[in-house]
Design brief:
- By secondary structure, the chain is of the alpha/beta class.
- The chain folds into 2 domains: 18-29 and 115-245, Rossmann fold, CATH 3.40.50.1000; 31-112, DNA polymerase, domain 1 (Orthogonal Bundle), CATH 1.10.150.240.
- It is built from 10 helices and 6 strands; from the N terminus they run E-H-H-H-H-H-H-E-H-E-H-E-H-E-E-H.
- It has helices at residues 30-45, 51-60, 62-71, 79-93, 101-108, 120-130, 141-151, 171-181, 195-203, 238-245; strands at 18-21, 132-137, 159-160, 188-192, 207-211, 233-235.
- The protein has a 6-stranded parallel beta sheet, with helices on both faces.
- Helix 7 (141-151) links the parallel strand 2 (132-137) and strand 3.
- The two termini are 29 Å apart.
Length: 247
């Protein structure tokens, strides 16, 4: 069970002009969305597979793929490209064959069609009243734009790691985001369900709001338990975040 969030900031939250949001896991339920896309593909193509395990494996290749870009083993490749590399690998691991190039491309674009958590759309609508709001995701601009269009995410603009040529948690991602917004780092609050993301944002001077997403990796997963004194705000969901930040 998630702890009750603090009602007052431990570090103070005055002066914030913009909120930037992690997307995969914080905004969208990638695990359910991808496993459902896989199930529908399997029904259409007569493929039997553990699609939840497939979703976990696809997501599991995410960090190693980005590390390959960081190390120079891969040239700069956006997330669509990395997702496709991972997909081609795990199809073989799961014994899935017979998919055409068109099938693979369409399945890869499932990451453009992820469903938001139930509180997200209404929560963002409230937060947009007082703040500039934008994603700050490793997802590429096309992916984030298509996702927003489909899911009704009311961003003021779309910020992506792609714009810096780096991947989170590299500091260049957060620095570039503040620059593009025309703000100082301390005027921007990063919102995420992952402590590594928030710590990286704090390291360049941004503020940090932790949102609990205990079901990101499924109901049986052990939820991350952050230090309740480390970040500016702790919220159970986006509606709670809006309530805490409303002026």
């Amino acid at each position: 069970m998630s702890p009750e969030p603090a009602r007052e900031s431990t570090l103070g939250i005055s002066g914030i002009k913009a909120l930037t949001f992690d997307v995969f896991g914080t905004i969208v339920d990638w695990r359910t969305s991808i496993s459902e896309e896989g199930r529908r593909l399997g029904e259409a193509k007569g493929i039997k597979a553990d699609w939840v395990a497939f979703a976990d494996a696809w997501r599991g290749g995410y960090t190693p793929a980005m590390d390959s870009v960081r190390s120079g083993d891969l040239p700069w490749t956006n997330i669509d490209g990395l997702h496709r590399i991972i997909l081609d690998e795990i199809l073989g691991e799961f014994g899935i064959d017979g998919l055409s190039e068109e099938d693979r491309d369409e399945f890869n674009r499932a990451w453009h069609r992820l469903d938001p958590w139930p509180d997200v759309v209404s929560g963002l609508g409230r937060l947009k009243t007082d703040f500039l709001i934008a994603p700050l995701s490793n997802g590429n601009v096309a992916l984030l734009t298509n996702m927003a269009k489909r899911a009704g995410l009311v961003w003021d603009c779309v910020l992506s790691a792609e714009l810096s040529g780096h991947y989170k948690p590299d500091p260049e991602v957060y620095i570039k985001a503040a620059q593009l917004l025309g703000l100082r780092a301390e005027q921007v609050m990063m919102v995420a369900a992952h402590t590594f993301d928030l710590r990286a944002a704090q390291a360049v001077g941004m503020r940090a709001a932790y949102v609990f997403r205990p079901l990101e990796f499924g109901p049986e997963a052990i939820s991350e338990q952050p230090d309740l004194e480390e970040f500016d705000v702790y919220a159970t969901d986006f509606l709670d975040l809006a309530m805490q930040l409303e002026s």
